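dude i think i finally got it to work??
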Amino acid sequence: MFNDGKTTEKGGNSDVKKSEKERGCAENKPTKKVNGKRERKLAEDSSESGYGEDVNSRRSARKKGNVSYNENLSDDGLVSSPKRARGTGVEDVSVRDNEKQAKRKENGSFKESVPNGYKETEKEKDEETAPEANASDPEVYVYPDPDFSDFDKQRTDSSFAVGQLWAIYDTIDAMPRFYAFIKKVFSPGFRLKITWLEPDPYDPDEIIWANEDLPVSCGKFRIGHSENTEDQLMFSHLATWEKGSGRCIVKIYPRMGETWALFKNWNMNWKSDPENHRKYEFEFVEILSEYEQDNGITVAYLGKVKGFASIFCRTMKEGKLLFNVIPPNEIFRFSHRVPSFKMTGEEREDVPIGSFELDPGALPTTNVEEISVSEDLKMSCGSNGATRPSPSKNSPKAKEDTHPDPDENCLENDEAYEIPEPEFYNFDAEKSEVKFKIGQTWALYCDEDGLPKYYAQIKKIDTDPDFKVHVNWLVSCSLPSGVVRWLNKDMPICCGFFKLKSGKPSEYSTTTTFSHQLKVTSTEKRNLFSIFPRKGDVWAMYRSWKVEMTCSDLENCEYDIVEILEVNELRIEVLVLDRVDGFNSVFKGQVEGVSPVKKDISKIELLRFSHQIPAFRLTEERGGSLRGCWELDPAALPVLMFCSD
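look at this
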């Protein structure tokens, strides 16, 4: 534990042991700072929450309401200006009041408001003698200590600087959904001038949602009013943002690698009955992609691991990890970001590798479902593929010293299958000796199922006295962030990032082990290459793909043959191909009714792509009757395709 057990409040405005609690619109003068360390207290309801006796305190200290403002803020390039609220005909800024406030400020009589958003006006000044009539006590929340990480270190006095954007606990359930820029840092002590952000949606439904004071933590925001605060406990974490296209506009969206809470059973229709939707339950997710205006955001669901205060890892259902794409029109489904640290698995023996420790201050204290973590899930909850463990004896790494005879590249099966010859295109001509050049990368038939799933780079070619090719293997070293990994370490991987294995090259005296030349992309790192399906390629996909597949499953594995239509950051669109009647290796696009059968494959499921198949587009063959069809290299097709029923 990182907490020291003391019971003094961070921020200095009050001591929760006192009988007189701090009020959000009490006197405007600074109060004495009690202690610079985070307060802890004994939770009276700890038995109900299920947490231990020592708990941290969290406070929301902002009063949400309509305000008038007119302050020019030019130091960060964002300028606030009076504007008409979208979707209404009522101005939300009073120019006359703004002029009076500005005049009083020049005369030195203007008071900055306190942290709950209460701003003094002429009328309120006359009622200053009784400010407590409308005052309300800020609520104090309690939450458990994290097991391993020190989240408080990220919000100490020295963490605050001008220009930062901070997430702040809101007034609904004290989750970090408010945002404010740091405009000025005063010293000594903790005192800031902040400028609030206000939601500024464009979509009509989102406008109604925001007008009903339902929570908004994503999308567009505009610069709001400024105030001073000494309340350090209201700050949760630094937020990432980008400048919008209009004046005073800021955009905030979940970023890849972050962890967020989603509203459980969210529905935009909550806006029609907001008062019955003020209490929330949550689902927790890891963000696997950046936000795209047309595609939304891909997420992986997380579950709270039993036995920990706030360790979360990816969840599985029926052997498959749970993922989802949140479309752009459901962006308000995101409740708030939950700060987190990623676990290495070395923190403790039972900590899942790649899991997250979430900040308890941004989690509800009740109604968080817990899960038990299986050994398989512990292996698969990492967000990207780490270096593969030592491979089996049949993998390219082992082949540096011993490599199979080309004739042994077949399934270990008592029954032999005859691979037919292609009917129109000579694929063997593409791998004649004269086609081989130093520096090329080739796919080779693998040991597991005889399909082209090994990759190697040509380092040397001998022609005298005999032809000989020297190659170094490309070994899978990582996958893009968020891609699901095989649970079995020996399963072949044909997509992702590959490193060139150094050491003594393997030698081949024939080209029959080679399938086809690959198009690879060099990365910024030396000897690191990327290989992914490209538009126009033909690939085989595992039909009943699941992460727990093993090499023994490959023997009788069924495949879909697909043409790659489009590739973007989130998904790969494919056209399913069917074999043309009367031919062994001629395929055409599958059709249902009059529509081609297309599929969208999430990049999360990249390993569904088994291997690339050399293909040739037919044109005038058979009098043009096969125009647009593909002839595929039979040697790269699964042998079961050539078996009789």
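Confidence is low (pLDDT under 50) at residues 1-135, 382-395, 397-416.
im so relieved honestly
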